[in-house]
Amino acid sequence: MTILTITGGSGVGKTTLRDCLIAQYSPPCAILPSVTTRAPRGRDRSGEFIYLTEDEFTRREHQGEFLWTITVHGTKYALEKGSALDALSSNTLFFAVITHDKVPELVAYAGAESLADHIHSLFILSPPKRTLQKRMKKRGDPPAEIRTRLKSCRLWDEEARQLSLLCTLAFFQNNEGISELFDQVVSWLKRMGAL
Fold it and tell me: What distance in Å separates the CA atoms of residue 135 and residue 94, rounded to the nearest whole number?
């Protein structure tokens, strides 16, 4: 296994889980970088994003350099084909925090390279609304953004359940905090032979 996709709504713990896994198991773990048009944030990890201007993003998109593109909350994101293929061909376990609807595209790309078995995906279900609000406030999200993201979370949970009919998603819940989620995911990864 070389790519683990981590998906779920805002505030469910995707990035925190990824960072905990990297802290515990790096190397041989790394981040599969996303391309984005947004400005760097203080909480971004080194190598997590490749920052592009809108024009550069559009140029590279038109040149077919991206496996997929998506706009989330007004910001463009993409995955470079070259980065994905390098990760699929590596002995390193790469973590990709992506939206759930892009998982089938990554799986299809890997399948075309005869590497579909190198991808495993997990989806973190949304905790109760109050828990999400508290997490988003703690990380400094503006109130209007919190309202928008809360609406998206339940919809994404339902869409992921439907998506699981098309590709394999392992579902996890993060109601009690990252420690419990971390332990569940590590146990699952060990059963899958990834750790």
Answer: 26
